[in-house]
Amino acid sequence: MKTNYNDLALLIHRVGFSALMLINHGIPKLDKLNGPIEFADPLGIGATASLILCLVGEVLAPVLIIFGIKTKFAAIPAAITMAVAAFIVHGSDPLARKEMALLYLIAFVVIFLAGPGKFSVDGRKGR
């Protein structure tokens, strides 16, 4: 087989991880904007600022990554959000508790390093 499926693999990786992040973690956090904001403050910047940064990493960045818009740039806040979740929020927890955050962190680092592939808005610009 001489067919190269790298761009298809990047599409599946990019859309799969970003959609899971968005649906399971990002969208549910949007409800926290209704009423008084009660959210963890792991960086000591306030609950509101922490929630906004988390929404950037779990809602805005995944949407951009899904479509492949400024993909490498968008992968940075997503990865940072997962690094904070893994190493600060769950820093003293056992590995099993921080595993999901680490898996997402690895996935977004791979997206940053590999780029979006040709099946993306970013990839179409090169044509």
TrEMBL record:
Its main location: membrane. It is a multi-pass membrane protein. The keyword Cell membrane applies. It is found in: Cell membrane. Pfam families: DoxX. It comes from the Bacteria. Keywords: Cell membrane, Membrane, Transmembrane, Transmembrane helix. InterPro entries: DoxX, DoxX-like_oxidoreductase. The keyword Membrane applies. The chain crosses the membrane at residues 47-66, 73-89, 101-121. Belongs to the DoxX family. This is DoxX family protein. It comes from Winogradskyella litorisediminis.
